[in-house]
Amino acid sequence: MQYVTILGSTGTIGQQTLDVISQHPGRYGVFALTAHSNVEAMLQQCAQYQPRYAVMQDAASAQLLQQRVQAEQLKIEVLAGVDGLTEVAAHAEVSIVMAAIVGAAGLLPALAAAKAGKKILLANKETLVMAGQLFMDAVKQGQATLLPIDSEHNAIFQVMPRQAYSDLRDVGVNQIILTASGGPFRRYTQAQLQDVTPALALKHPNWVMGAKITIDSSTLMNKGLEVIEARWLFDARPEQIEVVVHPQSVIHSMVSYVDGSILAQLGNPDMRTPIAYGLAYPERIASGVKPLSLIEVAKLEFEAPDTQRFPCLSLAYDALAAGGTAPAILNAANEVAVAAFLREQIQYLDIPRLLEMTLQQLPAEQVQSIEQLLAIDAEARAFVTQAIANMTTAPVRKAVSV
Ligand code: NAD
Ligand code: MG
Fold it and tell me: Quick one: DSSP state of residue 243?
């Protein structure tokens, strides 16, 4: 039996992980579940999966959960905050850690799992965007096994050579080709983008995901974050990573080799495939995902991304080129801007505008430590929060032109 900690168990990825685990009861046991503040959802998961630990980010929620767990006579230890998260991520009895918290909040627990040498199923791409080098170093030093869960990176991992390399060319790789669905606004004009509402942006054509990543997918920021994620996971130079829009989301990504071959991984767009792959690696187990019917899919289309209408993708390449702390600054700014858009405090096109402004105003530094990155993350959040306050308190709200 392998014991699993699921960081972010009440989220979309967390729930799908529990779904796959439930299909293999003799193989995986649930050691710990964690959530931000949804006590009802956590209580329901606790009753169903009977973990040893449940962690709530927020202390008041932890207290409430504790009372409910006692009332239900469940034998579960309730912990709170980052300390609780790092404890269950690094616990000696845990073999597998699913890192599926959304945003920068996922960094410290994922890092704790890396240092403790766990098998890490990394869904939380923000960890690599913020602290790519430090996280990869921790994985190496802790002798952890890192398995990408993001569908694109999982696909690339599946078709990448297994030998070690110092440059992708040494193993015959020409390029990594990340596919992007293009999101719900692929065909929108600049004028139509102006009027996009949260409700509209929350409807992704192919994938069911949490709110933040769904907005990121619509702006192509998600693909930008994934370019940075690929840079670290596969030790690729930015020019070795190409983005291709593929609206069907059937090819989850590809690797192009020097001999002219392109290897791809295909499947129905369902995250239980990469989750099952990560859980069982290097074996394969059933995931509950329907086999892909190529006849039903019938055709696969590809086109170039339009960085005029979707500048977030270029901003990610810019941050990568600037290096150092620039991707962490971009990530923090994006989290604040997306949250403000979801609260209807800013307009859709203000998102790239705020990101560009933040990258211009806050200088990139060399990365030295996690503490430094957390301080820069806080600084970038404060900067964007202030910029939003300035925009929204202005007497006449000016239309944004990008
Ligand atoms: P979600 O919003 O559905 O779930 C997020 C989870 O994290 C929830 O359990 C929530 O309680 C917890 N959480 C949120 N803020 C927290 C905080 N401050 N501290 C502790 N816990 C917190 O998100 P999701 O769609 O499941 O995505 C999770 C991660 O996986 C993201 O980084 C996302 O980019 C990545 N990812 C998701 C998908 C997908 O299909 N959903 C695909 C690829 C990658
Ligand atoms: Mg993805």
Answer: E
